């Protein structure tokens, strides 16, 4: 599982010119799933997201988590995070989990995030063409891959 976390002051997802979801201060999490992803990968990533201290404390130091600031999370499935670009100019997505595997992983991921955050996590729509808007705060953008755990 590979994720891109962006600290945002606001973010939203629009599908077919209709806003599906939006958040204020918190995290936009783009999530890409692989066929080999396990429940352990999901749990590890969720723990990282919830505990990641990337929000400023009163001294302006990144020392607070999304939970500490009572922030929100918008989770968007994005298979293109597993693009292979080594050969040619057309990316290959062979490492991305097919929808039959990715959809349950995404749903489980969102459920685990909601439980850990203690409130509902906003989402995109799996497989839909989405317009994602965000105001990156900082900017702060972090990439985490469950297959490359840095302990």
Describe it for me?
- By secondary structure, the protein is an alpha/beta fold.
- It has a single domain, classed as D-tyrosyl-tRNA(Tyr) deacylase (D-tyrosyl-trna(Tyr) Deacylase, Chain: A, 3-Layer(bba) Sandwich).
- It is 21% helix and 36% strand.
- The protein is built from two helices and eight strands, in the order E-E-E-H-E-E-E-H-E-E.
- The chain has helices at 39-51, 99-117; strands at 2-15, 18-23, 26-32, 55-56, 62-64, 72-77, 122-123, 131-145.
- The strands form two sheets. Strands 1, 2, 3, 6, 7 and 8 form a six-stranded mixed beta sheet that branches. It has a two-stranded antiparallel sheet with strand order 4-5.
- The protein is globular, with a radius of gyration of 15 Å.
- The mean pLDDT is 95.
Q: In brief, what are we looking at here?
A:
With 151 residues, the chain is of the alpha/beta class. It contains 2 helices and 8 strands; from the N terminus they run βββαβββαββ.
């Amino acid at each position: 599982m590979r994720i891109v976390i962006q600290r945002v002051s606001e973010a939203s997802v629009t599908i077919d010119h209709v806003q599906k979801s939006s958040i204020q201060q918190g995290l936009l999490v783009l999530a890409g799933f692989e066929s080999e992803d396990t429940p352990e990968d999901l749990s590890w990533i969720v723990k990282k997201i919830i505990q990641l201290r990337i929000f400023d404390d009163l001294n302006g130091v990144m020392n607070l988590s999304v939970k500490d600031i009572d922030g929100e999370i918008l989770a968007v499935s994005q298979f293109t995070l597993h693009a292979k670009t080594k050969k040619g100019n057309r990316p290959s997505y062979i490492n991305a989990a097919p929808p039959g595997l990715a959809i349950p992983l995404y749903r489980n991921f969102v459920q685990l995030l909601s439980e850990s955050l203690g409130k509902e996590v906003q989402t995109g729509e799996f497989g839909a063409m989405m317009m994602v808007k965000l105001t990156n705060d900082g900017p702060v953008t972090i990439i985490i891959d469950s297959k490359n755990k840095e302990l």
